[in-house]
């Protein structure tokens, strides 16, 4: 088998992967390679044809294809090795790390890499993740699959649409279906608040008069060959179905938009390493403030690290991982080995905090998600006596807290707590 | 009159209260950046949206439809007419990102442009 040696192997050629590769290259790392299982770079963005991308990163309002083409062009101009149609199927940690790559038409190849950056993105929760019972008929798609069919392949998946879940992709697809003349009966969300961003609720549903039903869910699919209807029902505060609210809704297509999860399917991570530590709250890897996983020389960024709201954040994370990977090569004894990593703690009202570990030696941007929507709150970090006021927080919208090294210097840990505004003097 | 508008420029979703008198904006409150200011001003008086869709493209690599957008936002009530306007068009590669597909789209003064490159699909199996 052909063996290839690289300094940095980036697994996944979406926004995070390309940003990471470009940053490593900029730090004068010689051999940087991107492995991408699809036929072209770009990840999910080529199919996200709506605007709203790049507002933070480029200070421009771009569509997904426009945003990502800028990166594809930059990668093309740099001396980064790009391997498309190339799936990393196995990963064995070590010095060097070993990657087994399945390359379409070329067969298997082994790659040895000083560092690895995992940017495999996330996947959608499907019918069987949602325990959705009923007939196994055609016409059930995840929102991303419907998006790919419509906006890459030019195929209309259905005419009478029900959307289950109000995640961003679902809202965006509700609008796409309406634009193309399909009848969108409604978006059904089990939670008492929408799962997607506010701007998508406004621009995708309100603009097109598509109803959003909160506290309501699809409990059964009916249809012989194709979906013919779904049964919807209200839920109580413990998410139990309220039986006498069951209603049949006619449709030919059910679109699922009920959450995204970091994609661990490939590569398979092999022993002897104990595996990468996983944070149950994000379903992504545990990382330190260099975005290094529990496996030294293995980094993570983007939606594989945590499911993000915007590609801008994904890109910033990719850049940090790329920088860290470059640094770990330049300083081979890796300063990380000598650092005692300290823990962050998601406290009251906080679902997760990333990075999960920090050194106290550098400035850190912490990404947080709250558990439920709240207005006028403080995010308090008692260990360093700091708090940040937020007019509104929502689970759908990531909270970012920037702390300076001098602020966190000596603290043994950092916990983040949400508390409602109390009348007292300014901090 | 006070119009409540949810700002959609960024994920924050600020709730703006716009005070309007005789189609003139008197005051806007509740926003946290200048991008939002512009958006809320125009949303209150004449709402606009960037029009986007896809147009079939024959013989392109990786894609069967080409994503397109208007360079600038157009009046919101023209979005439906925009969909009719592009119906029936078929494109051929090569096309470059930013290339004009329809000039002065619906007489709005802005062009409909390609959102990405499209290269011809060359059969590389031989």
How is this structure best described in words?
The complex is a heterodimer of chains A (427) and B (126). Chain A is an alpha/beta fold and 427 residues long. Chain A contains 8 helices and 29 strands. The model of chain A has no long low-confidence stretch (mean pLDDT 93). By secondary structure, chain B is α+β, with helices and mostly antiparallel strands. Chain B folds into 2 domains: 44 residues; 63 residues, CPE0013-like fold. In chain B, the strands form 3 sheets. Chain B has a 4-stranded antiparallel β-sheet, with no helix packed on it. A 3-stranded antiparallel β-sheet of chain B has the order 1-2-3, covered by helices on one side. In chain B, strands 4-7 form a two-stranded antiparallel sheet. In chain B, β2 and β3 form a beta hairpin.
CATH superfamily of the largest domain in chain B: CPE0013-like
Structural class of chain B: alpha+beta
Overall outline of chain B: elongated
Task: Tally the structural domains of chain B.
Answer: 2
Largest interface: A-B, 35 and 29 residues
Cα distance spanning the termini of chain A: 63 Å
Low-confidence stretches of chain A: none
**End-to-end distance of chain B, in Å?**
69 Å
* Biggest sheet architecture of chain B: 4 strands, antiparallel
Keyphrases for this structure?
heterodimer; A: about 425 residues; alpha/beta; FAD/NAD(P)-binding domain; 3 domains; eight-stranded mixed sheet; five-stranded parallel sheet; 8 helices; about 20% helix; B: about 130 residues; alpha+beta; CPE0013-like fold; 2 domains; four-stranded antiparallel sheet; three-stranded antiparallel sheet; 2 helices; 9 strands; about 30% strand
Helix and strand arrangement:
The complex is a heterodimer of chains A (427) and B (126).
Chain A lengths: L2 E9 L3 H12 L5 E4 L15 E3 L8 E2 H14 L3 E3 L2 E7 L4 E7 L3 E12 L3 E3 L8 E2 L5 E3 H9 L8 E5 L3 H12 L3 E7 L8 H8 L6 E3 L1 E7 L6 E6 L12 E4 L2 E4 L3 E3 L5 E3 L27 E3 L10 H20 L4 H4 L3 E5 L3 E5 L2 E2 L5 E7 L3 E8 L4 E8 L5 E5 L1 H4 L4 E8 L7
Helix pairs in contact in A: 1-2, 1-6, 3-4, 4-5
Chain B lengths: L1 E5 L8 E7 L2 E6 L4 H12 L2 E2 L2 E5 L8 E6 L3 E2 L3 H8 L13 E3 L9 E3 L12
